[in-house]
Design brief:
Helix content: over 70%
Largest sheet: none
Radius of gyration: 11 Å
Mean pLDDT: 92
Oligomer: single chain
Number of helices: 3
Length: about 60
Amino acid sequence: MMDSETRERRVQAIAVHMMSGNKFTPTMIMHRCLCSKKDAVELLEQATQRMEVLRDEVR
């Protein structure tokens, strides 16, 4: 379990990397963040949403 600040930083970092064209899977995030599969899936979903917001802001 991670605190909300750590979660936000990780979501932001994943989103920025995804904008650069990098692909992520829940398993990759799970191993990198040392979190559960459920947390990794949630992080990936949040990062995908954040990436879309960032992409819209850039336009």
